[in-house]
Amino acid sequence: MSHPKIFISYRRNDHPDTVARIYDRLVGRYEEQNVFLDFETIPPFTEFAAYIRERIHESTIVVAIIGPRWLELLKEKHANYEEDFVKIELSLAIELGKVIAPICIVNAQIPRDMDLPPELRPMLKYNAALLPSGRDFNPNMLRIMDGIDQSLHTSPKPNAEKIQPISQRTAALAAYQRGRTQYDERRYDAALTSFTEFLGVFPEDSSAFHYRGMIYMMRKEYHKAIADFTQAIRFRSDDAVLYHNRGGACFYLKDYEGAIANFREALRFQPDDKLAYYRRGTAYLERQRAGDFADAISDFNQAIRLGYKTSEVFERRGLARMHEKDFNGAIQDFSEAIRLKPDEPLYYFQRAEACVRKKDYKGAIANYTEAIRFNARYVEAYNGRGLARLALGKSIELDVSIEDFTQAILYGHDHPMLNTFYNNRGIAWINKNNPKKAIEDHSHAIRLKPADPIAYRLRSEVYQQQGDSALAAKDADEARRLEGLQSE
Fold it and tell me: Does 363 map to a domain?
């Protein structure tokens, strides 16, 4: 009499000692060559996934051993997008129409329908056997093996129509596993092809849509990423990670409304997601509607409370506090960002800007100087330091403010604010009683941006101080004309 081929599906870190006892009893009854257990029967140097698929194809029955951590590990791997061979094994067995024999060990319970992904729910039609680990183990195991024999005599054979497309499904499962390997190896183009192949056969697999969406994110194809994350959410609507990543794609498209909505959903399902608070706060900061800065501060506070204490979160909260005119709070945040990342010139620059808003021009000059120390071509810092020195109004500061604006002009020859740097130096020249140089700088600003009324207004004032009323009036008229165009 020929024995059935038995495939044992189990989780290695969920009571492997009990699994080994089950294997021994099955081998005692059905002989070793007819019972497959991966750590006992896989030859060395064999490709694991392919060998597993072959053994399931050959099997008559799949024994699904469900331990106390079986469901927990299923959800954990699902949430972390880790490869789950138990899920793959049972999905393939169901696709092939194999008999499933669930055995619950160590007081484990059979999962509920709602706890399983759709592809595993058909296994629930098989009545699960309970196998305590005490002294009744052997008689219970005999009863289970009798049940296996009976199920093989009463279960209908899978028909040819169901088996026919299995090779295609098997190839698709192989494509998914290949895609995971390619993704981990950062071979994203190849992984994209593999996941697309898999989705052609399994169009309701949320994990594949998620991975492909992440690849589109890395390729900066954000609309495609959003489409894939949306598909994944259709099949896994309670997954915080999917909403989080879709929110990130919306943010990169400057769809701050969409980003905020998605981060809100992510936090509904995972309320301790510190990164979601940080990113939603950043979206509020960028959107800049009424109340957004207060909401941004609230989100940054939550991120920090949950342990997300990076230089970036303090810098962002400092910016939000600047908008709320809490300059002391902003300075504290920029100082904390500097403590965490002391060689970042941007944080010194922003602390300098907060000092300017407090009219602490000496503090501003000191911070602009630090920013320049770490970035000798920091044109905005040269311009800011020049303005702070102008604000002090001391003659010695006027000389060095001109030097600062000159440095901004030198390093910012292709900067969009180059005309502003010329205008600021023109103002410094006026304060130094050098109207000729001032007119040269304002004229240069006009050549760079002829539609900007500010340079005309400033040059008009210089002409007026020189007593040239005609040229002053001409520039004033042009300034008014351009201001009128801007207001239309």
Answer: no
Predicted confidence (pLDDT) per residue in 226-255, tens digit: 999 999 999 888 889 999 999 999 999 999
Establish if 120 belongs to a structural domain: yes
Domain that holds residue 116: 6-162
Condensed to tens digits (0 to 9), the pLDDT of residues 31-86 reads: 988 898 876 555 665 566 667 778 888 898 999 999 999 999 988 887 777 778 88
Q: Does 488 map to a domain? A: no
- Tell me the CATH number at 156: 3.40.50.10140
Contacts of 444 (CB under 8 A, 6+ apart): 419, 422
- 335 occurs within a structural domain: no
- Structural domains of the chain, count: 1
Of these ranges, 34-43, 200-209, 273-282, the one predicted with the greatest mean pLDDT is 273-282
Residues in the chain: 488
pLDDT in tens, 431-453: 999 999 999 999 999 999 999 99
